[in-house]
Amino acid sequence: MLLPNILLTGTPGVGKTTLGKELASRSGLKYINVGDLAKEGQLYDGYDEEYDCPMLDEDRVVDELDNQMTEGGVIVDYHGCDFFPERWFHVVFVLRTNTSELYKRLETRGYNEKKLKDNIECEIFQVLYEEATASYKEEIVHQLSSNNPEELESNVNQILKWIEQWVKVHNS
Ligand code: DAT
């Protein structure tokens, strides 16, 4: 059976992981968190002193995932999307959160002032939305509001319906 690949992107803290795991458990699709994958495989290329974190080796991440993506049925979660092959994804969801709510979520993660400020600016200037529309066909890129549990539930239900429809169309 043909299954779609879904990209969940957006500023850190908008709820990609929460949505991705819930979707995976309710759809049977596989969830992949690119940050975790890089950590497990040490898919890094240098260190970013300014942000105090390792830098992703994007080519190795793509190599690592390519077979699974070609097979289909994968939900990918990452706060970036311009280095993934365009052919991988059938739909792209950019999660969006109000700045006051996002600030609260990131504060509880213990981010320092600079990291907090940069991430909030990233959300205000819709950096990830613009990256997504620059990297994929506009008609497959959708924004989803992710401020509260009701919106989470509604996003899960909407995407489950989208998956069901996609599967029907591509397997008939
Ligand atoms: P991300 O993977 O985008 O970094 P996350 O899924 O780890 O984000 O969520 C960050 C925090 O916010 C976490 O404590 C769960 C919470 N959260 C996620 N989606 C939410 C929503 N729709 N409403 C309220 N809280 C949410």
TrEMBL record:
Chief place where the protein resides: cytoplasm
Gene3D superfamilies from the UniProt entry: P-loop containing nucleotide triphosphate hydrolases
Compartmental location: Cytoplasm; Nucleus, Nucleoplasm; Nucleus, Cajal body
Region (NMPbind): 33-56
Protein keywords: ATP-binding, Cytoplasm, Kinase, Nucleotide-binding, Nucleus, Ribosome biogenesis, rRNA processing, Transferase
Residues that hold ATP according to the record: G13, G15, K16, T17, T18, R109
One cellular component term from this protein's GO annotations in UniProt: cytoplasm
GO molecular function: AMP kinase activity; ATP binding; ATP hydrolysis activity
EC number: 2.7.4.3
Domain of life: Eukaryota
Reactions mediated catalytically: ATP + H2O = ADP + phosphate + H(+); AMP + ATP = 2 ADP
Similarity field: Belongs to the adenylate kinase family. AK6 subfamily.
PANTHER family: ADENYLATE KINASE ISOENZYME 6, POS9-ACTIVATING FACTOR FAP7-RELATED
Full protein name: Adenylate kinase isoenzyme 6
Natural source organism: Daubentonia madagascariensis (Aye-aye)
The gene coding this protein: AK6
